[in-house]
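Obj.: predict assembly geometry.
Materials: sequence records (below).
Method: joint structure prediction, all chains together.
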Amino acid sequence: MKKSKVFWGLCLLAIIFYAVVQVMISGGILDMYYQSILIQMCINIMLAVSLHIIIGITGQFSIGHAGFMAVGAYFSAIATMKLGLPFPVAILIGAIVAALAGLLVGIPSLRLKGDYLAIATLGFAEIIRIIFLNVDYVGGAAGMVITNLSNWTYAFMGVFVTILVIANFTNSRHGRGCISIREDEIAADAMGINTTYYKVVAFTIGSFFAGVAGAIYAHNFFIIQPTTFGFLKSFDILIYVVLGGLGSLSGSVIAAIFLTVVSAYLSGYPEERMIIYSLVLIIVMLYRPTGLLGTKEITSLFKFGKRGGSKV
Amino acid sequence: MAEKKTLKRFASLFLASTLIAGALAACSNEGTTKESGGSSSSESSDVIKIGANLELSGPVASYGSSIGDGAELAVEEINAAGGIDGKQVELVKVDNKSDNAEATNAAIKLATQDKVTAMIAPATSGNVIATAQIANQNKIPTVTASGTAPNVTENADGTINDYVFRTCFIDPFQGVVAANFATSELGAKNVAIYADNASDYAKGLAASFKEQIEANGGTVVAEEAYVADDTDFKSTLTRIKSANPDFVFIPGYYEEVGLIVKQARELGIEAPLMGADGWDSPTLVELAGAEALNNTFITNHYSSQDPDETIQGFVDAFEAKFSEAPNAFHALGYDTVYYLKDAIERAGSTDGEAIQKALAETKDLSLITGTFSVDEKHNPVKSATVLEYVDGNQEFNSKVNP
Amino acid sequence: MEWLQQLVNGISLGSIYALIALGYTMVYGIIKLINFAHGDVFMLGAFIGFYAIARWDLGFFPALIIAMLLCAIIGVIIERVAYKRLRNATRIAALITAIGVSLLIENTVIYFRGASPEAYPEVLSNKSISIFGANISSQSIMILGVTIVLMILLQFIVHKTKIGKAMRAVSHDPDAARLMGINVDNTISATFAIGSALAGAAGVIFGVYYTRIDPLMGVLPGLKAFVAAVLGGIGSIPGAMVGGLVLGVVETVVSALGYSLWRDAAAFVILILILILKPSGIFGKNTREKV
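Observations (raw structure tokens):
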């Protein structure tokens, strides 16, 4: 009972935090520039967390996350710009289509492992991008011009729901199924876990939220073009998850926040930024291959001295 | 059960961690807002800040940095001559990494952090569109030097982006000029089009060229496309060759066009080739080779070989500063600053609305890339130049008025 | 006529893929690592060759040899610094490191010389030979020739020399190889040296043939070469050769049918189909999963 109260208490805190920022925005304390950074932070958190469930929890190595984001972005844009649907409906449409795409990619993942899977997801993401590039209905290379509908409320709601669903999923029976695949697929299989099913579920949920992020992204930047969703975008998302810790939700959230801020400060130095990123990636892999937080959560840092802290 | 509760606790603590981190970020943001707000208001009285949101890195960096260099030269000249209405001009350059989202961010930063009076918008049309709404919302007059797509100033529903202007002519005009040149000067009947499919610029040109050449009585015997960053064009060129065209129109950027021209000649396509301002770069000659480039033509904004006195003055000044001959992007960047200067002087203030009005009313303004007036769609009505490559040099062929 | 010409186009494109794929397949064969940085070593080779020819006025063959030597050294450094520690780490950690190395090389080059493309000077005369109405440039014959010679040389090294025998042993079972007195570290380094030298050679040849080089030129050919290696059966040297040629011809056919915009998609579709249907590729051996 007590712990459940803590949970609701924190939900309340989140809402208070949201309200405070909202008041600051309406009061003009946070101008457009900071609002934009905050929204990008939210988008990156959603992307990081949605990739975390695929890589961190289920151990399926996907480097084509930008492809799902593109699906969400384009389909939500079609919904608002071509069909005139309201924005929340559009987000849902983008997310559902992205989830379907995730389902489609998830099915081949039944047969592929490790780096072969990685290459295949990269291939899928490129194919998705090339399809958008060749469809004139969505503007082809010129892209789609989109009205700005995203705001702090949508972005925050997106993050809130994403974290809520994925954290609870991880802690459910299904989540443990996924973790067992990450730890040892053959053993999990032998224990009677339907590994195929859980892999596909993880891919689908991950792409659903990547779709949400894509939808909010599309309606935040006025124009989307296929070039936006190339390899580099996928690698950017990958860096959040890897740096934060493969298997740590709070780790990927913190990494996403941190790197968004760093990226905003380094915007004048794009080459240096990429050099720093890649060096960090290499060094982290060499000296801490599980990422900064590993599979631990930030909360476990406060639990010294308690029994059995290592088990989740 | 106990485990379930622990897990819920985890879930809640994740939320907490988000909150803390978010709050920290928000706090630090707040601090800087106030600082920058204070500093910019104190210095805005004696300096006119012009933001330049340009592609300084990324795939089309050469256009953005060319425009930036041209603008820098213009600002230097203006400041040496006493500035605009006695105020010095400061150019605030921001890199948008040739990326839409970064272009939006850069525009927001220029508008709200640097509080610029006017902006030079990005070089490519897509990136300009990514900044157009920011300009409208913040009432900051924005001029793109080389965003040639029609929808930069005019939205799909026919409305005009009030605060967005351009110094260059638009794609349909270039396509029409090229088509007329092909028909009347080269006598082309059966033409092929080979366009860069990854750029809206090339597609726009291809469409208007096709329309005009068909109106002139020509037939399009082959219509092909390529994707930017390709290196092997031989298979498609073989297709074009078998259609036997007497003229090939290749709208695209020099990085690929150089290779296309080279490979086309290798495969034995001897017909005249023609392109547009995207070809204009010294690298084109190195990539294609001077010999392969013979019998090719481009439409362009201006020619550094134009004997006109003001143009030669600009070419000399530019060569003195950067020790290279200015290309069209340099000239357009330079002109963009003078275009803004003219409007700010006529507006008599640094107020966004007044400058916007003055820009829209520009009449017979004489600049390096031509004399122009602005039409109701915020497009300058100006002439285009046709150049021919002869042994690797651009030779002035003719000037075409709209 | 047109189809003969297209076949020629396809083979000359395919031999470039094959040349890069040879290095890929060797490295993968021995340490089971998708060396993402291979495409970037290819890019470095192109630039080294460019500076050798344009700045130091060397001829084609000296430039080729310098590029191969320097790339071999770079390959060994990459292996020693970045990959060696990860030999017993997870495949994912190794792959992420490879991506990191790839990004690092690209951005370091961009940092020092900018992202703008460079045009290769003409070092080899290029004549068009007309056979049955198809134009074949002498350079594309040269590329195909170099690729075949290198493949045979490689096949000889792997199958007839002592170091080749060591490579095969390490690839089969590194622990057993070590017990047999094989210096595993040196063998792996030698593999990287040979693979990277091949990438460097491919870079110079690519530059001479296609003229344009830029810091991101290695990304797509690198991926395509990987597709070619997988297609041919990863780890197999003739497989890489055949995979490269097949991929080149397929891509050309896709363009020749008028779907040039779908060309890259075609390569990835082939990749995914091969991975799903016959992961061992054309020449590969089926391996059973070890528990």
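Conclusions so far: The CA atoms of residues 88 and 154 of chain A lie 8 Å apart.
To do: check interface contacts against the pulldown list.
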